[in-house]
Design brief:
The chain has 664 residues and is mainly α. Helix content is 42%, strand content 8%.
């Protein structure tokens, strides 16, 4: 009363239930016979009292809540009025408003209500309405007759229902990441029947002929479908649109109409296991697929429809595994969108930075979430790529004069640190291959980066440089090192090839000798993963050198402090004494004179002490002259009159039997 400026008083009260099934006359019943009907009150719980009386009209053809309510109260499909056509206009049989769009008819409807005295009050208000996500325009929500795939009907052969078969298929499928299983399972377990038809002007036609009175399919539907399919194959979809009922049905044409619905696009793409794996690409493919790969939205899309259609046709999932990835976002975490204008074009990255940078970015990102990309991120990826590429350049350069058929040293005879390097690569390869098996690419990139920068560049190759550069060209010590890095390169190129494909291909052309390159058909992608030679006592070696690396890191840190102070120019200018006890002393002492090569100093001595409290690292700048060839500071520089600027070890490496190495 207050809202409408009226006066009055309550003369009685009743529960809402008492109004159930009371009938109201249509407000335009006196204006035209087409509106002369009654509408009953249905009691429901989806109307709130804060906006009015709660007594509202029901429009079962245009609202889901209304549809459910009317069905619940006994209304049949034939009872439901559907005056709005597919083009958004009122049907011609609707008095006063036929031919108008629903938007055009709003004011005329209000005017007609006022004309006949049925409009109590006109109030404008904002209403939340469905909009097209792509075009951002309002859409008409209406009930229509549809084709369905029933989820819970038992087949005539007595087997499980479609839902049961699909759920069993999920249980037999591997998911990457694992949370995809619960997501897809929930969607299948709780979904309603699948609506296969769509009211679209475009798409794959549901090329049926339907009986006008019964709605049944023509009894020759399979035969007719084949005829229509052949016409479409020849002339495209237009062949169905231009086809007349009389052409195929003759005398029966008067009783049948062409079905105008198109097929749900997810049914269309969801049957690729039949049309592609067993159809257009049967020779190159097999059923079921090893893996279906798509974005996380496809649990309700392609993954979903493929599972249901294969459950119908094959009684199982069309895939053995599903891999789900997130979406690419910009550096601020915003989704890539053409309309926003923040799309980073893959082709542009490939053209400017190279395809392998793009591939490395993808592989280094945890695809189970969003994938961020920006210039700053690509800059970091480029730096990581350079480290890997520079490591490869070192390996290739230092095996350029190595012929494995003549120069290879058997693993059992190699120096200890070379055997350690092979054992370490064996362990890395096992880890990487396990990650590949489960489609985990970012740990692969992380481990390859760490291996190239820390394990090789920061330790093994750093130590190896002296032997490779200053040893006799064909000495045992140098050939041992070359044999080891030849094996490492064989394995490394194959491990990186799935990600850094172009780099691995380029390196393979340089690394493989003429015979091996020809045998590989001039591509690394004909090769299987490398089988590294077995190293006896590999675990013990790995443990020993892990401990040595920790000790070396302590020495290197202290030497860097001394170098920064200006007392020495490089670590080779230092003479180191390590006071150690217990296992630490035994470990360092076991390397003998080769300890200096591991520490990259000109001299290294180990002194045993009784406790860890007495342990220490003493750095002393060398007072000896520097060898201009190996840069070691040694007392025997110039000891050979004819080679006054180089040390005794260099003379031996150049002109004698060569320096002896045992461990490093």
């Amino acid at each position: 009363l207050q809202r409408y400026g009226m006066e009055g008083k309550i003369i009685g009260t009743a529960a809402g239930e008492a109004l159930s099934m009371l009938k109201f006359k249509h407000p335009l019943s006196a204006a035209d016979q087409g509106f002369d009907r009654y509408a009953p009150i249905f009691v429901s719980d989806y109307v709130t009292l804060d906006t009015g009386t709660g007594i509202v009209h029901s429009a079962p053809a245009y609202g889901l809540d209304d549809f459910i309510s009317c069905k619940k109260h006994g209304m049949t499909d034939d009872d439901i009025l559907k005056p709005v056509m597919g083009d958004g206009k009122y049907a011609s049989w609707l008095p006063f408003f036929g031919g108008m769009t629903i938007w055009e008819a709003s004011k005329p409807i209000c005017a007609k209500l006022e004309e006949v005295g049925s409009l109590f009050k006109l109030v404008m208000f904002d209403h939340s309405y469905m909009h097209c996500w792509r075009h951002k325009t309002p859409i008409i929500y209406r009930a229509t007759s549809q084709w369905f795939a029933r989820m819970d009907v038992q087949p005539t052969d007595g087997g499980p229902s479609l839902r049961e078969t699909a759920l069993a298929g999920i249980e037999a499928t591997a998911f990457y990441p694992s949370w995809g299983k619960a997501r897809l399972h929930g969607m299948i377990a709780n979904r309603p029947d699948w609506t296969l038809s769509r009211q679209r002007q475009w798409g794959v036609p549901m090329a049926f002929f339907v009986h006008k009175e019964t709605g049944e399919l023509h009894p020759r539907t399979p035969e007719l479908l084949e005829i229509i399919a052949k016409r479409v194959e020849q002339s495209g979809i237009e062949a169905w649109h231009t086809l007349t009922t009389e052409e195929l049905l003759g005398n029966e044409a008067a009783m049948y109409v062409k079905n105008k619905d198109t097929l749900d696009v997810w049914f269309d793409s969801g049957t690729t296991h039949q049309t592609v794996l067993r159809g257009s690409h049967a020779e190159e493919s097999s059923f079921p697929a090893d893996l279906y790969l798509e974005g996380s939205d496809q649990h309700r899309g392609w993954f979903h429809s493929s599972l249901l259609t294969s459950a119908m046709l094959n009684g199982r999932a069309p895939y053995d595994a599903l891999l789900t990835h997130g979406f690419v976002v910009d550096g601020e975490g915003k989704k890539m969108s053409k309309s926003v204008g923040n799309v980073v074009a893959p082709q542009k990255i490939s053209d400017t930075l190279g395809a392998d940078i793009l591939r490395l970015w993808v592989a280094s990102t945890d695809y189970s979430g969003e994938l961020s990309i920006s210039d700053e991120i690509l800059k970091r990826v480029t730096e990581a790529y350079r480290r890997i590429r520079n490591t490869l350049r070192f390996l290739l350069a230092n095996t350029s004069d190595f012929d494995p058929t003549k120069d290879a040293i058997p693993v059992a005879d190699m120096l200890e640190i070379d055997r350690f390097a092979i054992a370490q690569m064996t362990r890395l390869q096992a880890d990487v291959l396990q990650h590949y098996k489960t489609y985990e690419f970012h740990p692969v990139v992380s481990k390859l980066q760490m291996y190239c920068s820390e394990d090789l560049g920061g330790f093994y190759l750093d130590i190896l440089k002296d032997r490779l550069y200053t040893g006799g060209a064909s000495s045992f010590a140098r050939r041992s090192a070359q044999s080891a890095i030849w094996h490492l390169t064989q394995a490394l190129l194959r491990l990186m090839a799935p990600i850094l494909s172009f780099t691995a291909e380029e390196a393979w052309a340089v690394f493989a000798n003429k015979e091996a390159f020809s045998a590989s058909e001039e591509t690394i992608f004909t090769q299987i993963y490398y089988v590294l030679p077995e190293v006896n006592g590999a675990d013990a070696l790995l443990g020993k050198y892990a401990a040595l690396r920790e000790l070396r890191a302590e020495v290197t840190k202290q030497l860097e402090e001394v170098r920064t102070s200006g007392a020495i120019g490089s670590s080779l200018q230092a003479e180191v004494e390590i006071k150690a006890s217990g296992d630490k002393y035994n470990l360092l002492q076991s390397l003998g004179d080769d300890l200096k090569f591991v520490l990259i100093t000109s001299q290294a001595n180990v002194t045993q002490v009784t406790s860890t409290l007495e342990e220490a690292i003493i750095d002393t700048p060398s007072t000896q002259p520097k060898c201009e060839r190996c840069w070691h500071y040694r007392a025997d520089v110039g000891s050979h009159a004819e080679h006054s600027s180089i040390c005794g070890r260099c003379v031996s490496n150049l002109f004698g039997e060569g320096e002896a190495h045992q461990f490093a």
